[in-house]
Amino acid sequence: MESIIGSHIRRYINGWCPNCNESSSLAPGRLNEDKTVELRTCVDCGAEVEDHDPRFWSSDADADEDGIV
pTM, whole model, 2 decimals? Predict the structure, then answer.
């Protein structure tokens, strides 16, 4: 079986959208070149939002989380 530990978790999160000026659902997005910022899209207004805490698989238990695409 192929290990997924260390790879990027593509999941929806609730986060602050500066364009909406409120907490919104943010769709998973692409990582920047050094993989430290995930560029997400606000599902309410379509604005691109920087997430400075992208998630990565750290264990098999991560697979039980909701919202993973």
Answer: 0.78
